[in-house]
UniProtKB/TrEMBL annotation:
It is an enzyme of class 3 (hydrolase). It comes from Aquilegia coerulea. Its cofactor is Mg(2+); Mn(2+). Residues 24-296 form the PPM-type phosphatase domain. It catalyses: O-phospho-L-threonyl-[protein] + H2O = L-threonyl-[protein] + phosphate; O-phospho-L-seryl-[protein] + H2O = L-seryl-[protein] + phosphate. GO terms for molecular function: metal ion binding; protein serine/threonine phosphatase activity. Its EC number is 3.1.3.16. This is protein-serine/threonine phosphatase. The lineage of its organism: Eukaryota, Viridiplantae, Streptophyta, Embryophyta, Tracheophyta. The keyword Membrane does not apply. Transmembrane segments: none annotated. InterPro entries: PP2C, PPM-type-like_dom_sf, PPM-type_phosphatase-like_dom. Belongs to the PP2C family. SUPFAM superfamilies: PP2C-like. SMART domains: PP2C_SIG, PP2Cc.
Amino acid sequence: MASETRRHHHNLVPLAALISREVRSEKMEKPNVKYGYAAQSRKGEDYYLVKTDCQRVPGNCLSTFSVFAIFDGHNGNAAAIFTKENLLNHVMGAIPRGLGRGEWLQALPRALVSGFVKTDKEFQSRGETSGTTVTFVIIDGWTVTVASVGDSRCVLDAQGGGVSDLTVDHRLEDNVEERERVTASGGEVGRLSIVGGVEVGPLRCWPGGLCLSRSIGDMDVGEFIVPIPYVKQVKLSSAGGRLIIASDGIWDALSSEMAAKSCRGLPAELASRQVVKEALKTRGLKDDTTCIVVDIIPPDNSLPPPPPPKKQSKLRSLIFRKWSHDSSKKLAKKLSAVDIVEELFEEGSAMLAERLGSDTSAGQSTSSLFTCAVCQVDLAPSEGISVHAGSIFSTSTKPWQGPFLCMDCRNKKDAMEGKRPSGVKVV
């Protein structure tokens, strides 16, 4: 702005014109977001959320972001419906007000953890026993933030042909770390035993027999099945990319690469139908099968990514690169031209102290000191219990420091870590 002013010191540009110019450039830099949805229902327990008109700053159209989510319910649809209706509000409520865009994006991972735990806590208090997986995607400009529990998945097909998962499956069968965590927290992991002691089917958590180690709801299974999400935040290059968000009805039939390859070159709406069609062709309709395809497209290009050439150099393949704060802009520009996707954040720990207490971004310092970090209720100075207090997993040497939890959320934290029996009894 200063250089702009110096350049026109003889012919001053009105402030309104400068602001208008900034508005135009910001609009130009933002990608277009196109999406398509397709589903085939068998049990009626899959739900989805599409909201493309969310605003960081109410009333400011330049602060728009989009939300796409899939909720795959089990043991009924109550948890999926409740989560669809409440999770977004709980996540947004955990972000301090008055943050700029950069600080807001930094605060998102922690807010997602708070929002997931609060939603789970509220749903369990209703006494209903269903549960749901959640894959929750927030797109703000070129930055994509994904939070997930369960085995619905979000796959990134970057422009240039690289395919990578932005989620981790929380299936006991496949995830050794989660099996160890569940048993350490008081659950048992094993297969279903039938007559004669023969064990069949996938690994399950007992009591309850759930195949997943993380979900929202499932109060009858035990609170070591946690709602704390794996979170990944990436920034796409200016070439854009495609997201495929789908329930396990897709992923039980197709690999991430197969799903991406099956719909390349098609616009998002046709692409989502094609992915569902491929899954049904491979496996038949054995489960609810839901898919959202989202294209993040450069503003000067309204077409979906073309099919990649058959042979690609290693330079063109997708590379995740963690960035230091002093990375030069020149290097960033050079790398974005070869489709390098910048990894901004990744964390999958199931320990609330690690997920709420390790954030040193501006968002933390501006949040209210005596507010519960999960449910956002105001606390009297004597009421708040540090998230670090008494935690053997905490790296903090000052357990009297925040963030703080109310007594109810502290009990929830202890139950999830196996420090006390789940307070919920189903009769």
